[in-house]
Amino acid sequence: xxxxxxxxxxxxxxxxxxxxxxxxxVDSVQNAPLSKKALFTMTIEDRNGNKTVRSGITxxxxxxxxxxxxxxxxxxxxxxxxxxxxxxxxxxxxxxRKIRRIATSVKNTNFAGTDFTYDELSTFKY
Length: 126
Hints:
Blueprint (H helix, E strand, L loop, with lengths): L2 H13 L3 H12 L4 E11 L5 E11 L3 E8 L7 E5 L3 E6 L4 E4 L16 H4 L5
Antiparallel strand pairs: 1-2, 2-3, 3-4, 4-5, 5-6
């Protein structure tokens, strides 16, 4: 079979798959473990090209609970974000020793100087 024939066959095969089934499979793989723990490192670059590196840990449970906590550098150490089912979100600011609920109206604001919004950090099922 020619290369064009293989490409056409691939296109036909892929186009026959239902998008809902694909999303369902992604969701089942993502949510298969009972809980997840991950260490992360992110590099943030500002407009001038200055880079800062942050490290942290994230925990996630199958019942849509997620905790993200910075561990380094000292300027953000201890800042944490908690996402719970029912669209409840909280942030802990260690410098104030306070837990603050994230209002629905500010879910699209950035978290702790990153490009991630609170909404993007929350858990959800496809």
